[in-house]
Amino acid sequence: MIVRRSAAVLAATVVIGTALAPAAVAEGASPSPAPAIPSGLYGTSDPTYDGVWRQSLALLAQHTVGVKPAAKAVDWLAGQQCASGAFAAYRADASAKCDAKTMVDTNSTSAAVQALAALGGHGGETGKAVAWLKSAQNKDGGWGYTAGGPSDANSTSVVIGALAAVGTKPADVSKDGKSPYDALVKLSIPCGGADAGAFAYQPDKKGKLAANADATAAAVVGALGKGLAGEPLKPVADPLSCGSADSPERAARNGAAYLVKALAKDQHLTSVMPGAKNQPDYGNTADAVVALATAGHGDKAADAMRWLETHSAQWAAQAGPAAYAQLVLAADAATFDPRDFGGQDLVKQLNATGPAPASLSAEPKASASASAEEAAKKDDSGVSVWWIIGVGLVGGIGIGFLISARNKKQQS
Prior knowledge:
Strand content: under 5%
Number of strands: 4
Structural class: mainly alpha
Low-confidence stretches: 1-29, 362-412
Largest sheet: 2 strands, antiparallel
Distance between the termini: 4 Å
Shape: globular
Strand order of the largest sheet: 1-2
Number of helices: 16
Mean pLDDT: 83
């Protein structure tokens, strides 16, 4: 089963090119009028279920590629916070006090923390948010989508990213002696079967773990203590294999091995919905790329990135800012150029979904292939050929995989 990073996002996000009706709306019920879109918010679709999530991803992706977001976009996100420190998926009237009916959640809160921490100058907001997250930790060390809900791999992982973003060591945040890493390792499927190394979203009612590619992508990043945008890691030359998950790092390595196998056949992950035809899952494929790059195996995600370059344009145009942000983060992680991604400028397209940025980056980062070409030109000017050969060798073993890196619907 695939579980998107937010059950609420599922209701509002375009996953496979067609809009999904909100899960909370009963069949045949009259839909509520679409809310007006705030001027500081990215995207034009109903933000009820994903406003904070998509805004956070958009701001984080912009920051990753050197774009300074518009002040009103950042202010809108910060203004969504409740007095408790938590964030809801969307509050149409942010001036109204949050109450017991305000559906705050760990995913929106953690994504907002990561975006605001990256941008800087929001220590008060992020501190309150992290304090709320700590208060919502379960006895197994993990987090559910809502406070008190059963722990799941996706929510636990995005909270880990929030903790790391503010400089808190996730291993030091515990409940009844259990850390979030303990919760993730318990969701790792042991070696030996067809789904060896994968992570489950949650155990089923009988305690059985079922492989979940999206949960695996999230947990690989989380088990390594990283957030949605990841961090540069040294490429790992050792071949991926499954071993006893006796540490979060080993569990992450097992998860990366599973993702490589999951991507091998079609170069993408697949969305499986009951009663619907299986279709490519673009967003989770992008997340898997980020996970592999974060684990030091970005070279093994190159085919998936080339597939996304060729096939993701229509999906991203329909899905909006969160989709563009996922692709920007994946391209950046795998050292593909997000400004020339299958002929598309992902950064420009993301920027166009919201208020104009305060400033743009001076120059896009050169890709590994562009760097090699530039080196060749310099050789004609007298630069040592041995330096050029060194550049080629380093590029060949994957210096470019890892610049930075990193949605909840069930799939069976």
